Amino acid sequence: MHSDPSFAARAGFERPILHGLCTYGFTGRALLHTLCDSDPRRFGGMSGRFTRPVVPGDVLEVQIWLEDRGARYRTKSSAGPDARAEVVIDAGVFRFADLA
Questions:
Q1: What is the structure's pLDDT at 7?
Q2: pTM of the entire predicted model
Q3: Per DSSP, what are the bridge partners of residue 74?
Q4: Residues of the chain with pLDDT under 50
Q5: What is the spatial distance between Cα 32 and Cα 51, in angstroms, rounded to a whole number?
Q6: Which end of the chain, C or N, has fewer beta carbons within 10 A?
Q7: What sections of the chain are H helices per DSSP?
Q8: With 0-12 CB in 10 A as exposed, 13-18 as middle and 19+ as buried, what is 83?
Q9: What is the pLDDT of residue 72?
Q10: Domain 5-96, CATH among 3.10.129.10, 3.40.50.720, 3.40.50.10800, 3.30.70.260
């Protein structure tokens, strides 16, 4: 499903899809660099809900809203700069590590 076109077709996809953990990892990296100044000690955790698959080559955009003790986020995917972006991770919650 992630690398074999025939297996992806049997699973109902037109072509292989990006592994969900890869999408989640790209999102986590964006959160780490944006919210934690690239310091993994400040990264407490993240959660979110996958809403649709991502195709390799799609452009990912992570939208972040700061809150008192963390942030909310969602990740969108599009086939390019002129394509309509679709939410692929929704209801995201980020929390900072407790460094006290």
A1: 79
A2: 0.87
A3: 63
A4: none
A5: 22
A6: C
A7: 5-10, 20-35
A8: exposed
A9: 98
A10: 3.10.129.10
